[in-house]
Amino acid sequence: MADHLRRMFRFYALIAVIPLITGFIGVWSTTIGHLLALLIPIALIVTVIGTLIWIDHGMKLPVPPITKRKRALAIALAPLLLVASVVTIVPLFDAGNFFASLIRLNVDRDRYEAIIAHAQANPSERHGRRGDILYTVAPGPPVRVAFRVEEMRLFWGSTVYDPGGKEMQAKGADRLGLTLACRRLWGDYYTCWEDW
After folding, report:
1. The whole model's pTM is what?
2. Cβ-based neighbours of 64, under 8 Å, separated by 6 or more
3. What is the mean pLDDT of residues 52-58?
4. What's the CA gap between 56 and 78, in Å, rounded?
5. Which letter, b or e, does each residue of 126-157 get, where b requires 16 or more Cβ atoms within 10 Å of its Cβ?
6. Among residues 48, 83, 130, 142, which one has the fewest Cβ atoms lying within 10 Å of its Cβ?
7. What band does 195 get if pLDDT is binned at 50, 70 and 90?
8. Strand 189-194 and strand 144-149: pairing?
9. What's the average model confidence in pLDDT over 103-122?
């Protein structure tokens, strides 16, 4: 029975890693992130099929070495883990995205701060590009800057510098009419994404 439960938990843990890795990798490479995102529906199908197999295996556990109650627990645990797997897809994706965004902020922070200083010195400039970082400036006061690595889109969003913080704390529409949701990363930096 212990071996059965160990293998079952390992199966569901491996399934749970897919949205976590997708959210994390997507911050670094949108192309790979989108390819990994295609695995999520496949993983759901595999999880449903796997759940049926685990229920079948639980029903075939021999009764004399284990009690009927333990066998019923082994059978009932598979659907519960299926529900847990489905319910945690978005939070796991979000956690992977948050930690990767935080790492990306630390990696690119010097470049962001140089862009912020340039934006403060040149208030008429609204858009620009430094290497692979595209940026948009809201003149303020205070000056706010949205940074987007060239290929970032939708799920993985932008890093935003907003020293006042008021604009980023509320969910709302940007100038293009897209609904944005934002979360504080560190200090005056936020990660924002299109929220459908």
Report:
1. 0.73
2. none
3. 89
4. 10
5. eeeeeeebbbbbbeeeebbbbbbbeebeebbb
6. 83
7. low
8. unpaired
9. 90
Torsion of CA 147, 148, 149, 154, to 10 degrees: 160
Kindly compute the dihedral angle of the four CA atoms of residues 147, 194, 92, 145, in this order, to the nearest 10 degrees: 20
Non-local (6+) Cβ contacts of 55 within 8 A are 75, 78, 79
Contacts of 35 (CB under 8 A, 6+ apart): none
Q: How far apart are CA 149 and CA 29, in angstroms?
A: 9
- Summarised one tens digit per residue, pLDDT across range 175-187 is 544 546 788 888 8
67: phi then psi, degrees, rounded to nearest 5: -80, 165
Residue in 77, 54, 58, 76 with CA at minimum distance from that of residue 66 = 58
Residue owning tokens 């993985």: 156
Average predicted confidence (pLDDT) for the chain: 81
Instruction: Give, in order, the Cα–Cα distances in Å from 150 to each of 130, 132, 156, 175, 176.
Output: 10, 5, 12, 20, 18
Contacts of 150 (CB under 8 A, 6+ apart): 132, 133, 134
Residue entry with tokens 């912020």: 116
**What is the 3 state secondary structure string of 66-87?**
CCHHHHHHHHHHHHHHHHHHHH
